[in-house]
């Protein structure tokens, strides 16, 4: 499947609930575009999901729905690998080996750990502290050149680079040192109810986000309630017009055009007309994805075969890297000279 002349990209996404349009515009759609130019490996990171308590039946359902939605969005199993992280045991095994080459101080400095540990109080799980090393293992297993991530993951990519460089220095060149890839369009889709914070499905206000599974009438109603401002003109200004600027960014992503082009199309509209226009664009964008999602979920054997075949291919790549690391560390390998 892979072209030796192409670079490798790896990225993962948690099965933590239904995807929002922020997940789609900011990550998944970028994957779809990148798969044409790179050897692409994508992963549903269910091991990362259990850093917080999960209901087993819910995790299973969310994992398979997550995979189906990624495929429905345009990831082609003929071009890309897509699998469950837990299906490839080398992720967990390499994580332990990298743990023994990582430092408590660098882990304690992770911003997301600091923020999330406050919520867990006295019951902070080791996995929450350690998951950046698992993320490094995810990346380094596949000789990854490029890691598509959001701005909030920059620190984790830097940690993966540091761990790779340290291991290469201590044991001899082993890992490719990866580079982060930061997509611009859709990377900062904000809440419809509060355009000063990022759109999130965990928001208590369900009108603040658009789910990829939301039906057209729900989408239209949520955009009707979207926060704007006291002016009447539609134009882009992230400081003065946060709500309108957010809607223009969403519209540009849904239509596949630039923000200046979106401004030109929407100039002269009333706010009500503009919000209806944005809602229609988003619903039109999601319609075919929802149809493909339903088809995949209604043919579980075919869906599972895609995931199992990808896991087999990923396992073959990952195990080669793992054996190389084990040998360099000094583990005895039977049959080797």
Task: Describe it.
By secondary structure, the chain is mainly α. It folds into two domains: 8-186 and 299-329, HUPs (Rossmann fold); 206-294, Tyrosyl-Transfer RNA Synthetase (Orthogonal Bundle). The chain has 13 helices and five strands. It has helices at 21-34, 46-49, 56-72, 90-99, 104-108, 111-120, 126-140, 154-171, 216-224, 242-255, 259-266, 271-297, 300-329; strands at residues 8-13, 39-44, 80-84, 146-148, 179-181. The strands form two sheets. It has a three-stranded parallel sheet. Helix 7 packs across helix 8 and helix 10 crosses helix 12 (271-297). The mean pLDDT is 93.
In short:
With 337 residues, the protein is mainly alpha-helical.
Any chance you could write out the topology, listing elements then pairs?
Blueprint (H helix, E strand, L loop, with lengths): L7 E6 L7 H14 L4 E6 L1 H4 L6 H17 L7 E5 L5 H10 L4 H5 L2 H10 L5 H15 L5 E3 L5 H18 L7 E3 L34 H9 L17 H14 L3 H8 L4 H27 L2 H30 L8
Parallel strand pairs: 1-2, 2-3, 4-5
